Amino acid sequence: MEIRSISSTQTFEIRHPILRAGQPLESCKFIGDEDEETLHFGAYEEQRLIGVLSCYVNNGKHFNQGKNYQIRGVAVVEKLQQKGIGKALMLYAEQLLKTKVCNHIWLNARVNASSFYTKLGYLEIGTVFEVPIIGTHQCFYKKFNQ
Ligand SMILES: CC(C)(COP(=O)(O)OP(=O)(O)OC[C@H]1O[C@@H](n2cnc3c(N)ncnc32)[C@H](O)[C@@H]1OP(=O)(O)O)[C@@H](O)C(=O)NCCC(=O)NCCS
Question: Around Cβ 119, how many Cβ atoms within 10 Å?
Fold first, then answer.
């Protein structure tokens, strides 16, 4: 498996079936996808895209100092979940963000994926909240360079 930078539209191949199943392709477009500092990564197995993850410069509502990155759109093709691909994408993104100014990484996780993030050392912040159509979420963060 190899991880490399991809374009925002390449992520749709995985975002759509895994994160926005049954919704229009348009729903795969996230605010900031095309921003200069946004990063999109794809995990490949023999030239086949099998997982994606994106990072956006965004303070969100919990961080108001320094420069903070939000991780979004973490998804792995269904048949290859639970084989370490998601974790490899998260660790790859963290390594890359360590080379930049980044005070915190944060993300809004679907509550049913919370342990995936806590196992990677992410801590809860704030209370659970509903995202229409998608479900209950919890914000998690990790302190970075400061
Ligand atoms: C959540 C997701 C990205 C994780 O990627 P993955 O490749 O399946 O996970 P990994 O194999 O790297 O898992 C790493 C660890 O997290 C655990 N884990 C993975 N997915 C989990 C989940 N949904 N709930 C709880 N724990 C999970 C694994 O069991 C593993 O634990 P271990 O280290 O004790 O063995 C992937 O399963 C996925 O795409 N799920 C559907 C979409 C989704 O929910 N995305 C997240 C939106 S916030």
Answer: 10
